[in-house]
Specification:
- There is one protein chain.
- The chain has helices at about 5-30, 45-75, 85-135, 135-140, 145-185, 190-195, 200-220, 220-235, 235-240, 245-305, 325-330, 345-355, 390-415.
- It is mostly helical.
- The chain is elongated and about 115 Å long.
- The protein starts with a helix and ends with a helix.
């Protein structure tokens, strides 16, 4: 071997050692975290106004999600009243108003927040260029060609994405959670408390599912390490052949591929486990909420009949005051599968108390049992809360309000991160 070959071999080994050292340094580098308030230093007054306005619309959109459940609950309960067509029309119109309001508010929210983020990103780029041009010449000698431009583009892109879509999602998720829990506890605190026991499990499952999907989208760093070995070896192919380094490079490449395979399998397992946990927690909530909701409906009807008893003449067709009401109740309160069979006892009284006697052109109401109306803060907007009895629509409304509130916890955690 000549002196030139020895020099080439020495230079090749040194180059490979330096490349390995560079890989180690790059692998050990980690992004530095900054306080949340530092992210707003590049927002000018107009940008702040756009951001605040977008946040308000995002909060409104998040709070409107539970309103969909309220309208849906009223739609279900409208099938059990006398004027079915009128009640259904009213409930459908309410759902349409909520849907349009929700679409407009969220569109404006994401547009304004993204616009403000784009303007702040432009300010960030300008500040970076001004700071870079003020550096000493030694600063540029220590950097590789294109390194600053690549670093700037990736950093500003992460900043713009985090302060646009992720920031709006964070605000929307918190208000969806608060609105869902508020609606649920207003209509039935007892049922909401039971369902809420499953919300932590649901929130964690949603968080891990979103997190695992995001990790898969970020790519496999082990594949990048394998690609770096291939690029290093091919870029110095003469040195590799001169040192008979082919087998060593191949083994390094295979080792990184094995790590990449294990990493990919681990990510898929995490996503599968999170998806299964999400559906398992949802079905547990379904079973527990619907079973306990049916129990609360039966208990509320018995309690309402005891707390607000019917008048003494209700149920007697010959009574001077309530005879007409009793006759109408006997014609309506029948079994669905046997229309000729009439309710008797407490079942008849419960049905008679809950009827809309305006359909029979009767101006008075016994105001008893489930038909008793309470004074509520929101008046006729939340009619089902004015009844001492829980209905099927109320149970569904409470269930999905708490469910959506718990699901909102999942997107909030990755967005905050």
């Amino acid at each position: 071997m000549t002196d030139n070959d020895r020099d080439a071999s020495t230079d090749g080994k040194a180059a490979l050692d330096v490349a390995r050292e560079d890989d180690v340094v790059i692998a050990k580098e980690a992004p530095k975290m900054v306080p949340l308030r530092a992210l707003f230093r590049f927002y000018k007054p107009l940008d702040v106004a756009l951001l605040v306005t977008g946040m308000l619309f995002a909060a409104l959109g998040g709070a409107l999600f539970p309103a969909v459940n309220v309208a849906f609950g009223r739609l279900l309960d409208s099938t059990a009243v006398g004027d079915v067509a009128g009640q259904i029309d009213s409930a459908v119109i309410a759902m349409e108003v909520v849907a349009v309001s929700l679409g407009v508010s969220l569109t404006l929210a994401y547009w304004l927040v993204s616009w403000a983020s784009a303007r702040a990103s432009r300010n960030l780029r300008c500040a970076f260029v001004r700071s870079m041009l003020a550096q000493d010449i030694k600063f540029f000698e220590s950097k590789k060609a294109g390194e600053l431009a690549t670093l700037t583009g990736a950093t500003v892109q992460d900043f713009q994405l985090g302060m646009a879509k992720k920031f709006a999602e964070l605000v929307q998720s918190f208000f969806s959670m608060g609105g869902g829990f508020g609606v649920g506890f207003y209509f039935s605190a007892e049922l909401s408390g039971v369902i809420l026991a499953c919300v932590p499990l649901l929130g964690f499952a949603t968080f891990f599912l979103i997190k695992s999907i995001q990790d898969q989208q970020k790519g496999n760093s082990e594949y990048e390490s394998a690609a770096a070995v291939a690029t290093e070896t091919i870029g110095a192919i003469r040195v590799t052949n001169a040192l008979n380094y082919q087998n060593v490079a191949t083994n390094r490449y295979k080792a990184n591929l094995g790590k990449a395979q294990r990493y990919g399998a681990k990510q898929i397992w995490k996503a599968s486990f999170a998806g299964g946990g999400l559906f398992a927690s949802m079905f547990v909530m379904y079973a527990l909420g619907l079973w306990y909701g049916a129990k609360l409906i039966a208990d509320s009807k018995a309690a309402a009949l005891a707390d607000y008893p019917p008048p003494s003449g209700l149920g007697d067709t010959s009574d001077a005051t309530w005879g007409a009401h009793s006759t109408y109740a006997e014609s309506v309160c029948t079994y669905t599968n046997e229309p000729s069979k009439m309710y008797t006892g407490d079942s008849l009284l419960q049905c008679a108390c809950n009827l809309d006697y305006a359909m029979a052109s009767l101006t008075t109401s016994p105001n008893c049992g489930c038909g008793y109306r309470l004074d509520t803060t929101f008046g006729s907007v939340l009619d089902s809360a004015a009844s001492p009895c829980l209905s099927g629509g109320t149970i569904v409304m409470v269930f999905f309000s708490i469910l959506f509130g718990g699901v909102a916890l999942g997107p909030a955690a990755p967005a905050l991160e």
